[in-house]
Amino acid sequence: MAGPGREALNMQILDIIRSMEEEGLVDHRFALVHSMKETNGPFFLAALLPTFCRDSTATLTELTVALGQPVLNYHNLVELCIKIKGSASCIGACRMALACGELWQAAENRSSKERSETFGFRLINFL
């Protein structure tokens, strides 16, 4: 049975999640991931987020390098976008998923102007 301290902490976490939803950083999936602690243990989210951040940072680094090349490899950009968008969508990081979806579309359209204006702006704002 959860003690009063644990319940208070859980309420604070839920308030933070609601705030992040209101800001558009996360969607309802993030709260679902948080609720998985009931079946996966109390530290599920605490273990998942650093893994997501580490993996996303590595992929965003690859994406940044790929975008900085004089000749863009659109196939590689699409693959990196799919990777980030999928991971972000699964945990409810909707703003990140949206930014990667827009870059994916720009890469599919092979539009350098759209790539630099849309993705660069959204990525900088996201980070």
Task: Describe the model.
The protein has 127 residues and is an all-alpha fold. 82% of the residues lie in helices and 0% in strands. The protein is built from 7 helices and no strands. The chain has helices at 4-22, 28-35, 37-40, 44-67, 74-91, 94-109, 112-126. Helix 4 (44-67) runs antiparallel to helix 5 (74-91) and helix 5 packs antiparallel against helix 6.
List key phrases describing it.
7 helices, 127 residues, 0% strand, mainly alpha
Brief write-up:
82% of the residues lie in helices and 0% in strands.
Instruction: Give the N-to-C terminal Cα separation.
Output: 39 Å
* Annotation, overall tally of beta strands: 0
Question: Quick check: average pLDDT?
Answer: 83
Report low-confidence residues grouped into runs of 5 or more. Answer: none
Series of secondary-structure elements, N-terminal to C-terminal: HHHHHHH
Radius of gyration from CA coordinates: 17 Å
Per DSSP, what share of the residues sits in E-state strands of 2 or more residues? under 5%
- Counting H and I runs of at least 4 residues, what is the number of helices? 7
Largest sheet: none
The geometry reads as elongated
Q: Tell me roughly what share of residues is in helical segments.
A: over 70%
Oligomer: single chain
Structural class: mainly alpha
